[in-house]
Amino acid sequence: MKTLFFSAKPYEKASFNEHNNSYHQQIEYLDTHLGPHIVNAVEEGTFAVCVFVNDRLTPEVIEVLAAKGVKVIALRCAGFNNVHLDTARRLGIRVCRVPAYSPEAVAEHAVAMLLTLNRKTHKAYNRVREQNFSLNGLLGFNLYGKTAGVIGTGKIGRAFAKIMQGFGCRVLAYDLFPDETLKQAGVQYTSFDELLQQSDILSLHCPLTPENRYLINEKTLNKAKSGVTIINTSRGGLINTKDAIEALKTGKIAYLGIDVYEQEEKLFFHDLSGAIIADDLIQRLMSFPNVLVTGHQAFLTTEALAQIADTTLSSIAAFAAGQDPDPARILV
Ligand code: NAI
């Protein structure tokens, strides 16, 4: 019973191989991402495909998987906007994910991006290596006393909110389902508009859905404070990049930190250092001194990788044994 991995990276293979010592599953790794171009290469009788954020499981791809006899799509991530769940459901393919793998890893990366931007440590690092100890251009701002607006207070948003409280920030939150424990801890839930109007820092922690695509756009940015800092470790499609670029030009956005990008599947997780990048939007973004881009690495800690491997392998083992894994992991 084989599981075929797509988009497999060396650090993932190491972690999965180590944890597979307890599961003894047949695993085959492919570097390429899953999409219409490669799906026909899946061998008949493959039990599961294991995919990551930028594999594209369109209806067409899932139809081919079903025809090959694939029984399980195992997402080794939390977000699932890249899988057409209705098609999987219709064709009887089970879909599972890793609902939580160290939410603190992602929250801490969001904070790392924020601290890099507000204290310009990325510039300082390069500067002192050239023996330039001048402080000109390194002026930052305190987090203490600022208002941080958290959009989406699930596992990651909650962890982020608590860290921001530790900095002495006033923390506002917007979520369709407010969290009672956060309220008791002093986090104030507001409407989305109020959150925009009052926050010095906005951090996105909600999933990407058809309803909230381009949640941050020209119209919503107009409601935000002038000089706002925006951090997005959630999904690129939550921000209209063109509108964000315009807002950076006017100073409406003073700092932007993104670990995710709406066209990231063509770029992220690949070494393109020798390539010509045709995507003018990301090139424009990276040209701003007050924009920090990381390539979807917020999850990348040893602890999170261990959790991803163990949860994924145990879900596949449960399906193979004719059982259901923990309901929180099941999408279909
Ligand atoms: P979660 O499911 O625990 O929480 C999501 C929260 O967002 C829920 O409370 C939900 O009610 C809320 N929400 C849904 N739609 C909303 C909307 N339109 N406006 C405001 N709130 C809304 O998810 P978790 O684990 O906190 O992850 C959040 C997102 O982070 C994931 O969907 C994924 O896109 C992203 N992520 C990014 C990673 C990275 O490495 N950059 C790694 C893991 C997750």
UniProtKB/TrEMBL annotation:
The keyword Lipoprotein does not apply. Coiled coil: none annotated. It comes from the Bacteria. Residues 111-298 form the D-isomer specific 2-hydroxyacid dehydrogenase NAD-binding domain. SUPFAM superfamilies: Formate/glycerate dehydrogenase catalytic domain-like, NAD(P)-binding Rossmann-fold domains. Keywords: NAD, Oxidoreductase. The keyword Protease does not apply. Residues 4-325 form the D-isomer specific 2-hydroxyacid dehydrogenase catalytic domain. Belongs to the D-isomer specific 2-hydroxyacid dehydrogenase family. This is 2-hydroxyacid dehydrogenase. It comes from Chitinophaga rhizophila.
